[in-house]
Amino acid sequence: MIFLFPRKYRRTFCAACCSSVLSAAAISGATGQDRSPDTTQDSAQKSSEQGTPVRIPRQQAQTSAALDGIVRDASAPGATRPIPAAVLTLQNAESGQIFSAATSVEGVFRVFPLPPGHYQLHVEAKDYAPFAIPDLFLQPNEVVTVEIPLNTVATMEARSRLPRLPELGPALSAESPSSLRTYREFRHQLDADANYIENISSDTLPPVADVYNTVPNRWALEQPDYRRYPRRGEYVYTKHRWYDPFNRNRFKGDEPIWPELLGQQVFLNITASSESFFDGRRVPAPSNVSSAQPGSSGFFGSGEQAFFDQTLRFAFDLFHGDAAFKPVGWRIRITPEISLNNLKVHELGLVGPDPRSGTNRFDDHVGMQEAFVEMKLHDLGPNYDFISARAGIQQFNADFRGFLFVDEEPALRIFGNLHSDRIEYNLAYFHFLEKNTNSGLNMFERRHQQVLVGNVYLQDFFFPGYTAEFVLAWSKDDPSLHYDDNGFLVRPSPIGNVINQNPGAGPILHGIRVGYFGWLGNGHIHRLNLTHAFYQAIGEDTFNPIAGRRVTVNAQMAAAEVSYDKDWIRYRVSAFYSSGDANPRDGRARGFDSIVDLPNFAGGLFSFWNREGIRLLGSGILLTTPGSLIPSLRSSKEEGQADFVNPGIVLANAGADFEITPKLRGFANFNYLRFERTEPLEFLLFQSSIHHTIGDDFGVGIEYRPPLTENILITGGASALRPGQGFKDIYTSRTLFSLFGSVKFTF
């Protein structure tokens, strides 16, 4: 039987890659005894001399036709084995012109161009009975695709009782009993460039079994050994090992895990990382009542400190999908993290409120940073638009640069995309956990704070390459009393009106209800890279300890960065602003504060002001918390409450990033810092005329990855803060500095 099926289910041939097929047809058509005049070189030259345009190869007239297909062994199992070197002969019934072709090693053939008309087709191959089609009609501008099965001679001898076909003529006198088989024709158009214009009907498609070979587990196919030479290097095929993350690995999501039990589309990705971080710094420190240095009477003590943190993080990600572009159907992820940290200081009362705690603190903690289940709810279209739900402890970043909310908290999250991923959206409800004080990892204890966040990303919003984001967030931090793991009071903040005047009533607890609206953007406009952000905060604090009363919140934050890439250097300038409170005792709080921020902005890790926490001496609060640009006067970023009565800040930044080599990057950063308002500081410190200038922040650093992947990452840097007059009014004129480094290994 001859199966005629569309081009999309077979191999496509061209003159460049199938010379063995086309050369035979071209030679036979060009050197035959009844050669067509319009295929000779003389006729082409004659047409050129007469002014007729000469067509280049594959630009045939619309009166051409074509024949292609494949020749298979009908006696083989499934009739899938091709027959190479089979000879096909086409004889035009009207002109007698003969065209010949031979099949390739894959059994395919193609004869083109052919004059339209009636043809007799004859197929011969060694050890196979001949095959013939007595009348095959080729129409103009048409291609016919055929699949020809040949039987062996032994098979045909057993069928000798079948009637014989008439002879094809003097040139083709062989008998072909097998040609009595019926066949279907599939015809489609042929354009001027010998390309097919498909017009396929589902009724003409062959059975799937005739097109595809069924493989029970395609992932279990062994790859050939490609190491032909003893030299070391990268190879196409490499034997996989469970401990090798760079090649095919079942535990890294490269192939299904236990396909015989869980199915073909269930993968497991295990990621383990180790990060060693060291920070040597000088920050303001009080000498306190019990000084570590006998005989010292100065208010400011020795601020040198050394901090070391070793973390081990393990992520187990089991998901159902195809490990490519298609969103996963379901996912289960569990990520525990271990922290071992040590702090060494020179003054008492810093590692704990009790001076007997000494000057050294070692702590360890195990936290569950991720533990969630994800399920795809619905596919919204053929371009992988979807909507999914995720429940459990999960990572979340509300915006591009981490200005508002970056954390790992228990949440119920709905997310997805629209219009071929041009629009992405999130809607998440978080119920916070308490944090370990010294590592920042989750504890197995609920905190009375809830956050609702919704955002949407719009790609190519104003310009191609520019993405806009709109954010709505609501933070509800209920009144609570909490001491951190070192024994310091963090909720409420130990500043201002803390103790209730009623005897035995204890501290005055207060709650915060604040909503945020933000418009942010990130991307590029032509050659300029652009990032900007604006947040408006509105709400209330039932009892702000600095104001000593209930306050309404109305505060703003804005940031913008413009950078330009030239060769291997990116030049950037940026500015950051958070509003401050000009009257700390009235009923309006105008100082901006975030939920839990971690900004990668204005130098990020390489900025002293951004990375280090600076205590406001003589109080239990921080001028700025570690990993924040805002002088929020909070007791702790993770465990304390937001404070909207703060001085605010104005920051101007300039810097450059250097792609020194593909493995080595360099960073240089400069910040000019200034308080937006100083009245809250003057009120808290009982000190008038505090200037606005904080100082100059310098930072340099490198990032080195020995492999081009991120499996080994070495980061180091140095930064310093040269105090301005306002900082000198609060502290001293000594320059603050930090030297830090980290080494991260990821499997």
Quickly describe the structure.
With 747 residues, this protein is mainly beta.
Fold and architecture overview:
This protein has 747 residues and is mainly beta. The protein contains 7 helices and 32 strands. The protein has helices spanning 19-31, 41-49, 153-157, 259-262, 608-611, 679-685, 725-730; strands spanning 65-73, 87-92, 98-102, 108-114, 117-125, 128-138, 142-150, 186-190, 196-197, 266-282, 304-320, 330-344, 360-379, 386-397, 406-418, 423-435, 442-459, 466-477, 482-483, 489-491, 512-525, 528-544, 549-566, 569-578, 588-589, 614-615, 622-624, 649-659, 664-675, 693-704, 712-723, 736-746. The chain has an 18-stranded antiparallel beta barrel. Strands 4-1-7-8-9 form a 5-stranded mixed beta sheet. A 4-stranded antiparallel beta sheet has the order 3-2-5-6. A hairpin with a 6-residue loop joins strand 26 (614-615) and strand 27 (622-624). The longest helix has 13 residues, at 19-31. The model is unreliable at 1-61, 165-183 and 192-200 (pLDDT under 50).
**SS content category:** mainly beta
Question: Tally the helices: what do you get?
Answer: 7
Number of strands: 32
Kindly, what is the distance between the CA atoms of the first and last residues, rounded to a whole number of angstroms? 56 Å
Strand residue content: 35-45%
Q: Main β-sheet: number of strands, strand sense, barrel status?
A: 18 strands, antiparallel, barrel
Topology record:
Elements: H1 19-31, H2 41-49, E1 65-73, E2 87-92, E3 98-102, E4 108-114, E5 117-125, E6 128-138, E7 142-150, H3 153-157, E8 186-190, E9 196-197, H4 259-262, E10 266-282, E11 304-320, E12 330-344, E13 360-379, E14 386-397, E15 406-418, E16 423-435, E17 442-459, E18 466-477, E19 482-483, E20 489-491, E21 512-525, E22 528-544, E23 549-566, E24 569-578, E25 588-589, H5 608-611, E26 614-615, E27 622-624, E28 649-659, E29 664-675, H6 679-685, E30 693-704, E31 712-723, H7 725-730, E32 736-746
Parallel strand pairs: 1-7, 23-25
Antiparallel strand pairs: 1-4, 2-3, 2-5, 5-6, 7-8, 8-9, 10-11, 10-32, 11-12, 12-13, 13-14, 14-15, 15-16, 16-17, 17-18, 18-21, 19-20, 21-22, 22-23, 23-24, 24-28, 26-27, 28-29, 29-30, 30-31, 31-32
